């Protein structure tokens, strides 16, 4: 189901050892880069190209959001916990589902403004486990900015 403009997907992420060997694909019209800092227009490309997940859990969420916008299912699959509910052993089917999701949602407004991510909390429950509460904004099928 499509999410209304002011609603968003909420989630948590566990930090872990993930990687990807696939770089950004050609941008779709509605793709967007998510910025870590105002002066860094391409914060996630390093991680996407190197195939390495950020060690900071908030940066991992940013890189994954950007991977959805850039249609990078390989990066998303490799940065998903194999024990988590989103993991799918049928890699081909999972890749197709991720691409379909990326194609159905827009990650910026017509003006070019990024819808982006709102981070609410990041807590650590151990040296290798972090929980991030966030809202990822996007426009669903048929929604106008």
Give an overview in words.
The protein has helices at residues 45-50, 57-69, 73-78, 91-104; strands at 9-11, 117-126, 129-136. A 3-stranded antiparallel beta sheet has the order 1-3-2. Residues 1-41 have low confidence and may be disordered. It has 145 residues and is an alpha+beta fold.
Question: What's the short story on this structure?
Answer:
With 145 residues, the chain is of the alpha+beta class. 27% of the residues lie in helices and 14% in strands. It contains four helices and three strands, in the order E-H-H-H-H-E-E.
Please compute the radius of gyration using only Cα atoms. Answer: 14 Å
Shape summary: globular
Order of helices and strands: EHHHHEE
Number of strands: 3
Helix content: 25-40%
Average predicted confidence as pLDDT: 73
Total number of helical segments?
Answer: 4
Please describe the topology of this protein.
Blueprint: E1 9-11, H1 45-50, H2 57-69, H3 73-78, H4 91-104, E2 117-126, E3 129-136
Antiparallel strand pairs: 1-3, 2-3
Question: Key features?
Answer:
single chain, 145 residues, alpha+beta, three-stranded antiparallel β-sheet
């Amino acid at each position: 189901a499509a999410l209304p403009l002011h609603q968003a997907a909420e989630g948590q992420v566990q930090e872990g050892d993930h990687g990807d060997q696939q770089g950004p694909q050609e941008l779709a019209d509605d793709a967007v880069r998510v910025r870590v800092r105002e002066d860094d227009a391409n914060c996630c490309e390093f991680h996407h190209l190197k195939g390495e997940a950020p060690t900071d859990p908030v940066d991992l969420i940013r890189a994954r959001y950007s991977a959805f916008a850039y249609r990078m299912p390989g990066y998303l699959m490799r940065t998903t916990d194999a024990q988590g509910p989103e993991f799918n052993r049928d890699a081909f089917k999972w890749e197709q589902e991720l691409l379909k999701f990326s194609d159905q949602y827009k990650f910026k407004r017509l003006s070019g403004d990024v819808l982006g991510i709102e981070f609410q909390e990041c807590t650590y429950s151990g040296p290798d486990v972090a929980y991030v509460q966030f809202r990822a904004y996007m426009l669903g099928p048929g929604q106008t900015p």
